[in-house]
Amino acid sequence: MKCLKMLGFAAAATAALMTVVGAGTASAGILCKNYTEPCNSILKNGEALSSQLGAKKKARINTTFAVAECNKSTLAGKVTKEGGKGIAPEVTVENLSFTECSNCEMLVLKDGTYYVSTFPETGNGTAIGTGQEFVTQCNTIFGKMKCTWVTKNTPLGEVEHGSPAVIDVFNADPVLNEAASDKLCEKEAFWYGEYEITKPVALFVVSE
């Protein structure tokens, strides 16, 4: 069993995300291990793109009735689409995990995938997830509540270039799977976490 957690600031984070993912600001591109245009060190199919919570950071999931907070979390996988002109690079996640969590437990059912939409001339992009599926089991005023969540083309947050680069997951809003959840589960949850990329050593999102 893998554990998870939760926290808020929904309105402010939503506004920030809409600014980042505003219409017409993002495009396809490639993942590069140094900042050159054109890229001369592309992150190729089969190469690892691994990340984990930064030092003294926490992953959180905020729901209406409970907040879970985890000391450790991993978001790791391999490139399965390199990207290119008109194509966004894609990562198949092989290890999504949340451990050392308080108040809530989380069972990860599916790791899913994410693609990276590029912001030209910035080195940054946005990770957009599909198929991450997890169950939060939280202690609430109504007793233990089981809710099942899934991402469906869900903006997870900004990929910030650097060495190390960071996947800044904020206000990621998975969809409630009502058929697999308790009736009292609300339809919103928000995922937060600052994940430092450990492989490759440096990462930039470059327009192609």
Describe the model.
By secondary structure, the chain is mostly beta strands. The chain has one domain. It is built from one helix and 15 strands, in the order αβββββββββββββββ.
Structure described in brief:
It is built from one helix and 15 strands, in the order αβββββββββββββββ. With 208 residues, it is mainly beta. It has one domain.
Into which percentage range does the β-strand content fall?
Answer: over 45%
> How are helices and strands ordered from N to C?
HEEEEEEEEEEEEEEE
Inertia-based shape? elongated
Query: Number of helix segments?
Result: 1
- Major sheet summary line: 9 strands, antiparallel
Distance linking N and C termini: 40 Å
Class of secondary structure makeup: mainly beta
- Stretches with pLDDT under 50, minimum 5 residues: 1-25
Share of helical residues: under 10%
Descriptors for this entry?
elongated, 1 helix, 208 residues, disordered N terminus, 4-stranded antiparallel sheet
